[in-house]
Write a structure and sequence with these properties.
Blueprint: E1 3-7, E2 11-12, E3 17-25, E4 46-53, E5 56-62, E6 72-78, E7 83-91, E8 96-105
Parallel strand pairs: 2-8
Antiparallel strand pairs: 1-3, 3-6, 4-5, 4-7, 7-8
């Protein structure tokens, strides 16, 4: 199970630009390194990160082996309506993790 941290406002005014931050603790192993026993460490990366707000995609990224461990993303969107913000990560094997944050627009 991955540890996820989200920083997002609980409320915003209609039309306000809000900052969203998302971090997932994940080793992001490239598959190019050797372990202490000299054997290659298996590749283990997150390949996709996407964020939807009120059912619409507001951010997405395709990740490659060069990304750092425990990737963190900071981005902005405009508050338009009250609804869920869903943060979703998918790894190379199709396993997914997600976190939902509810935003209330006043």
């Amino acid at each position: 199970m991955a540890t996820i941290r989200i920083a997002a406002p609980d409320t915003a005014s209609a039309g306000e630009v809000i900052e969203l931050k998302a971090l997932i603790q994940h080793p992001m192993e490239t598959g190019y390194r050797s372990g202490p026993d000299g054997k290659r460490i298996e590749r283990d990366i997150i390949e996709k990160f996407e964020v939807t707000y009120d059912g619409e995609t507001v951010f997405e990224a395709d990740l490659q082996p060069g990304i750092a461990a425990n990737p963190i993303f900071t981005f902005y969107t405009r508050a338009t309506a009250s609804g869920p913000i869903v943060f979703k990560w998918t790894d190379q094997d199709g396993e997914s993790w997600s976190e939902t944050h509810d935003l209330t627009v006043e």
